[in-house]
Every structure is written in structure tokens, then in C-alpha cells.
Amino acid sequence: MAIKTEPFVLNMGPQHPSTHGVFRMRLTLDGEVVVDLEPIFGYLHRGIEKLVEGRTYAQIIPITDRLDYAAPMSNNLAYVLAVEKLAGITVPERAEYLRVIMAELQRIASHLLAVGSFLNDCGAYFTPFLYMWRERESIVDLFDMVCGQRLTYNYMRIGGVSHDVPDEFLVALDKFVGRMPFFIDEYDQLLAENEILLARTKGVGILSKELAINSSASGPVLRGTGVEWDIRRAAPYSIYDRFKFDIPIGSVGDCYDRYRVRVEEMRQSVRIINQAMKQLPPGEIRSEVPPLLRPPVGEAYGHIESPKGELGFYLVSDGSIAPYRLHIRPPSLINLTALRDMIIGWKIQDVVVVLGSIDICLGEVDR
Amino acid sequence: MALTLSGEEIGAKLEEKFPGSIVESDKDSFLVRSEFLLPVADYLKDTPGLDFDFLSYITAVDYYEYFEVVYRLTSLEHNHSLVMKARCYGRDNLSLPSVVSLWRGADFQEREIYDLMGISFDSHPNMRCIFLWDSFEGHPLRRDYL
Amino acid sequence: MEIDINEKQVYSSTELNKVEAETIEALRMGSQQVIPDPDEWLAQELKGNVLLTTVDFFLNWARRSSLWTMLCFPACCAMEFMSASASRFDLSRFGMEILRASPRQADLMITAGTLTWKMAPQIKRIYDQMAEPKWVIAMGACAITGGTFAQSYSVVPGYNHLIPVDVYVPGCPPRPEALIHAIQMLQDKIAKRKNL
Ligand code: SF4
User: Fold this and answer.
1) Which among C117, C118, C153 has CB closest to B140?
2) CATH 3.40.50.720 for domain C55-191
3) CA geometry: angle at C4 spanning C3 and C6, to 5°?
4) ipTM surpassing 0.90, yes or no?
5) What CATH number did the domain enclosing A148 receive?
6) What is the residue with the minimal CA distance to atom 2 of ligand 1?
7) Cβ contact C118–B133 (<8 Å)
């Protein structure tokens, strides 16, 4: 007699420790194997796109901090770039360099969090996380020095940045980027060849190149599949065309590749910061911008390579002091499009590993 | 360096291929008639030399008389991009053809527009609310929602 | 004074020994019986381990010194909560490093982030599932009034619309020091609780 099995529906989230916030998945299981997955969003939908329609252009900067709260500086940067494009504002040299330094520090911080919590999900409970949090704290200290906040920085301004950096900052930054490569080596020593990590991530959650492109994936998820696409190189914004850096790519597109891409990107960020620090010119940090900015009627799209992928702000102006429409292109949400394909056929314990390797931030997924 | 293709040029090309498909075009974008949206998108995706294989984003803007849906297409191969727009008139029962069959990346974004703007996309495999709960009344991103 | 070594001493050495021997004998005779233990009425293993206090004080002491926290991380404030529990600020100094993913094992809920109406039923359910006695710390502006997002169509203007809150920590996000201060305030509050 043939034994018949029944599918089993398991709800995971929104209150679950390894969904990185309030993400929910409805899994259909056959035994331990996932046969279907439906992502459910909206548990952190704060209506940011509606809220900004009642604010002036400058008042929106603090709201962008709360989008991807693992990388507020990048959100600030993408937004101010969009406004500057719309209104045709130029930015002083020194501010451009400071922006690049902050954005790259933020990339390191975000990847540290991503890798740390990914390893947490793989079963290395909390130990690697604490190592990475140590370095993240030093970056947070650097940001604290320039803008007095630990998480919601609100540092970029339309036409520049809010403050010049204090003298101690450059000394501390120099010390930090001097040490960072050794820390990355330390993680590699602990993890790169770790038997358990390899077993849990190699070949797991493979995303093919074609599917990645077709489902508009970006950032480390796209590069992990072997596509060399980085907006810093493809459409250089700010002053990224002045720096030398490599674009690390993976080969098969599994969880391990995405992990390696993030670790390598941290090294490249250190390289960029080193170059930017050497070239940092003296001078103004903000150009004259009226507080109630009225950009001309029109539309603009400003996009950057945020730690999660292509983060873009699409602005429509009707000539008033508040934007007519602001659309945010959320890399985290769009990277989840292929989640179902990556997970189907794998066991239930691989779900958290695959989700961790995509690195989502719910503030940005739901907005 | 990324190249933004001129909407006029591509618009003229498309008008030749699909007569009557393009309503207007300017230097940044072109506006396509909604009946022609799918064939035009298909053409843009698969024609050698254009190869728009990557859909950057879709969004919708409410202009009171009509809703404008904005598609930004990118080609990773040639590193160029293009903005395509489509309009739907009126306030109720709006619909546009879905591009999910061409670009999977449109999936969640079209659902988002359906949820927050109230434009439904025909032949989308899963046209349901994405962020708000089912009984939520109204579409918050419309300009007349207060 | 000169000592005459020929003069007879007061006590000969044998006499001294006799006196000592008498003392020993007397003590020996008097110590034949075991002295009874005054706490004998207590169980054997409790011997020497008893302190007297009030039930209230004792219960409150136990409860406030090991608050187990429910993981409730909807939004950005969670980052600062993680900072507070990581090695630098080290929440475990206050007996609360254990984060529980299951509400049944937790007695403190730190609500770190914006609450939306879609999430509200889940939060209410988690709170209901926590065992009594339970406490809530509202962390951040969003948890207190909705903060930056108070006017939004989908945000709950404060957790206290759903669940009772014991301590409010302002800030967007509050720094880890502020959170630790809030926890100490909660501990003081628990110490004053009347249980009986
Ligand atoms: S209070 Fe501020 S930091 Fe905390 S969840 Fe709300 S917006 Fe985020």
C-alpha cells in the first residue's frame, strides 16, 4: 500500500527571531521539504511615501533615515542626490568626499550586521555576531562624532553635508581603516573554511543569473550570481569615478557566494575610504540652498548602490515646497522576488539561511 | 558611464514598428498607449541592440485626471536605460496589462501599485493587497486620500 | 630584685600539672552530653541557610534580578536594543541577557519599534501569552506616540492603545544608556510591588 502524505502549512513570522524583523512567510511543507512559499509583507508599512507629500524637501531627510535602518547614511545620500538632480544643485568638493567616506563606512557597517546575523542564522549562535558588532560599534562612534547620533544620522543636506568633521574624526578614521583589514582577516580565519558553514551554505539557495536579472535583483544578491553590475561603476554618482576599486562577484549564486561577496566588498570599501581620505580637500561643505527649496516642475531619479542593492528615489515636483510624489525603489523588497525559487526544494532549516543571505531590512521592504 | 536613451528616438522607432502606439515622447521618456504596452515592452526586451533585460522599478503617479505608470528599463549588457510611461484615465476600475510575464521583478511592485494606488494589472498571477489588510478602505497614495 | 635560685618556688612543677589536670577533668565530666541544636526543628539541609524577610521583598528581589526579555523587534529601535545587549553595553550586568523568542518564557517586553495596525493583533496576542506578572517598556518615540509616523494611516499611535506600558523611554532611537536607565527604573518599580 502506498503511503499518502499530506502537505503541512507552517506559518513563520511576523514575530520570529530569524526573519530580521516582521517579515512573514507561509510555508507549505512535505515532511521537512519546502514545496511552496508565500511571502507576506506589510507588518511595518508606515506609509512613508504618503507622509512625505506633506513635508518640505529638507524635512524628508530624517524620514529617509528610518527606511533601511541598517544603513541610514546611504538612504540620505540617495535622497539628496535625487533632489540635487531635480533642482540642479552643485555640491562642494569637500562635501562630496565626506559623503563618499560616510557611505562607504555605512556599507561596512551594514555588511557587518548582515554577515553577523547571517552566521547567527546558520547556527553559530551569537559569537561571530559579537565580533562583528565590535567593529560596528567603532563605526557608530565615528558617526556619533560627526553628527551626534548613533543610528538616525540625518547628516546629508541638500547641497552638501550638515557639519564639517571634527579634527579627531580623521585621526580616528585613519586608525579604524588601518585596523579593519586585520579584522576581516580574522573573520576569514574563523569562518571562511569552517566545515559547518560550508555545509550549510555551499550550494544552498542557488539563484541563477537569468532569474536574478529577470527578477530585478541587485546588490550582493545579483553579484553573487556572477553579474558584474554595480551602480558605482555602471553609472557613477557623486565622485565614485575617481576611485579605484574592484567589484567582487560570485560564481554559482548560492548563499556562500553572497556571503563572500559581502566580505570582499568590505575590503573594497576600506580601499575607497583610504583613497578618499588622502584626497580630501579643504573648503566649503555646503552650497547655498534656500531652506524652502522649490525645484522646477519635473521629475528626477537618483539612485545609488546601497549595501542592499540599487536604492533609488523617484521624485516628481510640481514647483511647490513639497514633492508631488516620491517613490522609493526598495532593493530589499525587490530582492525578495526570487525568494520562492531559491527556497523551494530545500529543507525547512535552510529557509532562514537563504533569507539571511539576502539581507533584508524590513523598514525598507514595507516602507 | 550609463547612457539614458532619448525617448524621442526610441519613440519614433516604436511608432514605425507599431503604428499608433506612441502618444507622445520627449527627451527623457515616451508615453505608450496602454493597448500596446505589452508588445512594446516585449520588443524592447528582446530586440538586439536594445536588450532591456532589467526592470529597475515601476511606480504610479496620480495627476487627478489620469494616473501615470512609470517603467524604468535598464540594459545590463549595454548599460543604458529608458523611461516608458502609460496612462489610465478615470478614478475607478483602472487597469493596465501586467508585465510580470516579461520581468518577474514587476511582481511585488505591481501589487504595491494595486494596493496603494488602486490600479489593477490584468493577468498578474496574484493580484492582491500587499501592504495593507484586505478590508482597508481607499488607496492611500492617491492625492485625494487624506 | 635578685633571684635566689635556692629558694623554693611557690608551685612545684607537679603542682601546676595537677591544677591543669583538674580543669581538664572538670570540662570532660561536664561535656559528656551533646549540646542540642537550637535549629533542630528545621530540615537538615536548611541548616544555616535561613534569612528572614518579607514575602514581598523576596519575590520582588527574585523577579527584578532576572528579567527575561521577549524579542519584539519591529523596527529601527531594535538596532539600539541589540547594541545594548551586545558586549559594549552588556545588559547581562542587570540579569537580563536572556532573550526569549517565546512569550511564555518571558516576563518583560521591550517594544523596540513602530507598531502598525497590521502587526497589532500579533503584539496583543504575544502580550496575552506572556505569563503573569509581566512588564512592558515602550522604547522610542514610535512606541510612545507613533513618533515621526504618528500621522500615518497605518501606524498605531503608541503601544499603550493596546497594552499597558510601565516605563516609557523617549528618543528616536533612545541610546543604549537610556534603555539601561529605563530597565533600572523598572527594577525599582518592581521592588515596590505588593504581591499579597
Ligand atoms: S522611535 Fe525612531 S528609531 Fe525607534 S522605531 Fe521609531 S522611528 Fe525608528
Assistant:
1) C153
2) no
3) 145
4) no
5) 1.10.645.10
6) C172
7) yes
